[in-house]
Amino acid sequence: MIHPGFASTEYERRVRALQAGLRGRGVAGAMLTAEANYNYFAGYHHFAPWTTFCRPVFLFVPAAEGAEPVLLVHVFPAADAKRDVWFDDVRSYDSLTYAPIPKVLAICKELGIEGGPMGMEMGAEHRIGLTFIEFDDLRRQLHPAEVADVGDLIWDLRIRKGEPEIALHKESGRIAAAAFERCFSQVRPGMTEADATRILGEAIAEEGGRVGFFIVTSGKGFFDRVAGLPRDRVLQPGDFLWIDLGVVYRGYWTDHCRATVLGTASQGQRDNWRAITALTRATVDQCRPGQTAAEVVSFIEAEGRRMGLTFSFAAGRSGHGIGLMSTEPPHIALYDHTVLDTGMAFSIEPGWIDQDLGVFVAEENIVLRPGGADMLTVTSRELVEQ
User: Fold this and answer.
1) What is the pTM of this model?
2) For residue 230, which of 319, 151, 222, 307 has the smallest C-alpha distance?
3) pLDDT of 198-220, one tens digit each?
4) Is domain 8-158 given the CATH code 3.40.350.10 in the classification?
5) What does CATH list as the number for 163-385?
6) N or C terminus of the chain with fewer C-beta within 10 Å?
7) What would the pLDDT profile of 4-17 be if each residue is shown by its tens digit?
8) How far is CA 187 from CA 15, 19, 26, 260, 360, in A?
9) Do residues 262 and 189 lie in contact, with contact meaning Cβ atoms separated by under 8 Å?
């Protein structure tokens, strides 16, 4: 089973909280079309949401207290959708060439959303599941009712993870640890970067997870490839192999990176790896509810100066939220002043690049508890030497 499998009461709690937020803002209801959002509120997981754009999904959430949601999906996955969601009202359409705007408008009228404002997830780090032409058509036909952004209301709920979600994060972390261990014990000179990811993928599948992504780099002169797909480059004796791995378990992600040397590491590689793991651990240990994301980065920078480190990992931040997506709010960055709270899950990933030695980033995923950080990643922090 790839779905979270939460109790219906958990999904209902989320919907009731969203409805309260909609009422507080004077919004008649929401129509959600982004994959992670209908996952979160309905429990429905589309079989291939980002490889087929001809079957959009619509989750309608009226703002009225106690009102039930409605899910509108293409007829092809409708039978599965009816089995997956926690409520009864699942409807279907059959067009593949254009969004079913007439059915959308009819449902909005039936649920009392048509008069607006109608909420959609239009703001930061959301994507609506319609073409611009379809969205413009919908907005025109709703006029004079307005379409309002409720993306921030959704993030207010999704940003804090409950215990069932945390358990899935921990399992994705366990699967990734098993995959890293197998890969680093089997990869050898003469294999390719792609061979290394094949080992990872097989282990992830056997452990019950799903591959989210592979980022791989190896070899002197290539260590600026910190967002590169695996290549057919043949691994050489002595190569430093760095892998950033995304694993998904029942919808919930882990995203962290580790490294191995195909032979004996140089003293410079060992010293750099010890430094980055020590800095990352110190940052994790000082994380507390009530800090801002920016304050975490201020600690990283101050501790880095004390250790004599220079940061050059060009990710634009030193960590990020994680959940139903591989990256979510908050940004662990000086420009993000989000107050960190219990239940927030995020990564810590400062680092630097040395074109001769390697990529020195040893990302961790944590969730905040009242007393500090609880580790979601359990992969060994050692630089593996073969």
Assistant:
1) 0.96
2) 222
3) 999 999 999 999 999 999 999 99
4) yes
5) 3.90.230.10
6) N
7) 779 999 999 999 99
8) 46, 51, 58, 9, 20
9) yes
